[in-house]
Prior knowledge:
Oligomer: homodimer
Number of helices of chain A: 11
Number of strands of chain A: 13
Structural class of chain A: alpha+beta
Helix content of chain A: 25-40%
Amino acid sequence: MAVRVPMGFEIAAVTAGLKASGRPDLALVYSPYPLAWALMSTDNIVKAPCVSRNRSRFTSGAAVRGIVVNSGNANCATGERGIWDNEDMAGAVASALALARVQDMLTASTGVIGQTLPVDRIRAAVPALTAALGQDSGPFAEAILTTDTAAKQANATLRGGSRIVGIAKGSGMIHPNMATLLAFVLTDADVGQDELRAVWPGIVERSFNQVTVDGDTSTNDMALVLSSRQIGADRQEFAEALEEVATKLASKVARDGEGATKLLTVHVSGARSGAEARAAARTVAGSNLVKAAAHGADPNWGRILAAVGRSGAVSDLANLRIGLQGETVYQGAALPFDAAGLSERLRTEEVIIEIDLAAGEAHGEAWGCDLSAEYVHINADYTT
Amino acid sequence: MAVRVPMGFEIAAVTAGLKASGRPDLALVYSPYPLAWALMSTDNIVKAPCVSRNRSRFTSGAAVRGIVVNSGNANCATGERGIWDNEDMAGAVASALALARVQDMLTASTGVIGQTLPVDRIRAAVPALTAALGQDSGPFAEAILTTDTAAKQANATLRGGSRIVGIAKGSGMIHPNMATLLAFVLTDADVGQDELRAVWPGIVERSFNQVTVDGDTSTNDMALVLSSRQIGADRQEFAEALEEVATKLASKVARDGEGATKLLTVHVSGARSGAEARAAARTVAGSNLVKAAAHGADPNWGRILAAVGRSGAVSDLANLRIGLQGETVYQGAALPFDAAGLSERLRTEEVIIEIDLAAGEAHGEAWGCDLSAEYVHINADYTT
Lengths: 384, 384
């Protein structure tokens, strides 16, 4: 999909030779302007050097000029050498772009854990990478993929003409040691860093952090928003559009989960708080039993109810309602329904589970995918 | 397996007709003596009436005389009717045994969620059940099974001649709506209720609560210890033997996980606390990616490391050690190892993962099983 990046951004991708497939694996976002930005990254105690380095820069509060991303190698659990390899990747790009400070270039890596990053190949590819800088986000979206089956982009245009373009990859800890969810959102809306940092954590909580493929949080996850501040925009409209883009990317990531044949969307309403609603939605979307039932088109509300129960979200059990594909199958007690007919309606690419906890006014969503024998094959039938 | 129950107990099982298979499904433990007891049960907010009723009795502190258990129907999410059906099951047995109080008879149910308990069939079977009371625990161990492939018993004899006999079933939330882990441990060791209640929670934390099959906590889980106090016993020796019996049952439950072909045993050492050690062990044993790797005999330490990281347990990453089948594959960084040879040694029924967090002195264990395509088939290829 050819999507033009927002004003004040240039973007590129090339093949550095990190992926065995020979597909593009080195990607760059660059701006001639200092970028306002906000970052959310993995809370796994085992973190790749790119995560630690970006966090350190984030804490300093300074602007950045872009991010270089490699796929095919997560550069994680690679010891002290990994720290310097990561720094070298940033340095090679900063130097080619004549940036004043190497710290102005952020980094991200995704791929196999525990293998040394072939930084020589990256260095060798950097001239071609910077020479390729242009306006089409498509090659970048392709180059950051690992086991994904499709590139993931979403965008929005605001009333004043400013734009938001989001690009993501990954889902769950996936294929042999692959590390995971990366999301990059670029905008030319004139929104300052304080504003971005105020809204981004909540948006990530409600979108990317509500995606579950197999519950394994990666060592390399990050979600980044960058603003070139070129075009005036309404704060409220911007925040809503940013959340819409993040939410679209999140559901695309879930739909492309490993071995997935269906997207599960779980809507929880009637919760005491948004956090409880999201916890319940996430627990249901992440339940192996619910996922397997979705795979088998089994209208199995018992598993949904049990998952809600263990999520810790408070509900009024006498009034709790469960809907599947728009049909209420449980409300305080089992309701009669046409199991064969409902099963037929579950044989589709999107399964929608609605749960009303009947305990409050808050709501939340989560996205997941079905659990297929293919998932097991992908993750088992492989030898390191 | 024919195991004689401890002194002061009688045990029985019959077929009431709750299981479609026609196998035994109603079981009873009874004592002519008031029994000291301790209980741990599910913290799922959705609880079956048997769980709530036993908890209420537990809180009263009074002794009990036994427990009646049905399989084939969890009597959960059955509304107010389920509460009375559960009471009726206890009442039918209490009446047949001429107990002074119906509350002296505890209850447990396991099986399909959301279907009315056929309490008439249970009532009709109670005379045969009480008539069958005897000394062999085997029929009871068979009758409480649902999708289990084998009965699970473990026992120990103390120096003074007192005995501990444990019986368990289940593992994870399993086959279509089946509810789950039940463990009953009987002893004639003269250990009072206060003592039992002091040691049981810790033992259950370290044993049954460290079993993970698919992470779905059931609505009906319970682990019960009953003592007839017939034979003097050393407190310390008793506590150790009780933990040994519970641990053996826990690993048997894990080994018999749905679709499992391998037992995963995860030993964590070098933790700051037992709770952190257990959390790390549980997270590794419960990781879909680790489980799939075990299934495929893949010596994939990256997934183990990532799971340790997200468990929240503090480790010294520079010294953290991971061993697989006795061979160290990671220590602060990847170590060279013979991947093909190690993969060969992973093609066995027991996979042992050792993790030294290098951060303290505490240790903990967890038990799980591999994730097979068979698990998906069992849980997906079914229509309610």
